[in-house]
Design goal:
210 residues, Rossmann fold, seven-stranded mixed β-sheet, three-stranded mixed β-sheet, 12 strands
């Protein structure tokens, strides 16, 4: 249990996680929905303005990112993907999609032989945009993951200027989620039918927002 997290909040998070996973599993046309969400991301100001983008590599039931990765590589952006490094996530500069292989939890990660190369390492401080997965989100940008904490730790360590943008199906977005002070909110949650803003980016002066 995270510091300061009550048993009630933990139980509520488990309940919401079950609901969101069941809804996502039953969702038809996930591939088509993923393309809609991906197109919304690629058309957004925050993506267009970003030079260095950290993408998650999707599991089967998540909003797919393969087409977004291919588009970003073709556009000449510096594309990063994460991989498990102990209890944290390492960052890898991806050149081609064929540099990925199934690894931890069945997630595609960079080929192990390529990871030690110095030119493939990028500091988190250089990232402009972090594309974030999750199990559930709310309309205020709160995020619920799998409970392992990998992205929680990465998001807390990321520079304040980096945009934290989640991709989610409509069925994963709730009016409100149980949250604790240590939980990191998303700046944007992009779904099929709407884009939701977190409190940090809610002002009208954010020109880069979609």
């Amino acid at each position: 249990m995270a510091a300061g997290e009550t048993v009630d909040v933990r139980a509520e998070k488990r309940r919401v996680r079950r609901l969101a996973l069941a809804a996502r599993r039953a969702l038809p046309d996930r591939a088509a929905r993923s393309r809609v969400i991906g197109a919304r991301l690629l058309a957004s100001g925050v993506y267009r303005a970003a030079r260095t983008v950290l993408f998650y590599v999707a599991l089967e039931e998540e909003v797919q990112t393969r087409e977004c990765l291919a588009a970003a590589l073709a556009e000449g952006k510096r594309v990063l993907v994460p991989y498990c490094l102990g209890d944290d996530l390492g960052l890898f500069h991806l050149h081609h999609l064929d540099e990925l292989e199934p690894r931890t939890f069945g997630i595609l990660e960079p080929l192990e032989a390529l990871r030690p190369a110095a030119e493939r390492a990028v500091a988190l401080a250089e990232v402009d945009l972090i594309v974030v997965p999750g199990v559930a989100f709310d309309e205020g940008g709160a995020r619920l993951g799998w409970g392992r904490g990998y992205y929680d730790r990465l998001l807390r360590a990321a520079p304040a200027r980096a945009w934290r943008v989640a991709l989610a199906f409509d069925c994963q977005v709730f009016p409100a989620l149980p949250v604790q002070p240590h939980d990191v909110r998303m700046d944007l949650v992009i779904a099929e039918s709407a884009t939701y803003r977190g409190p940090r980016r809610a002002g009208p002066s954010e020109r880069a927002a979609p």
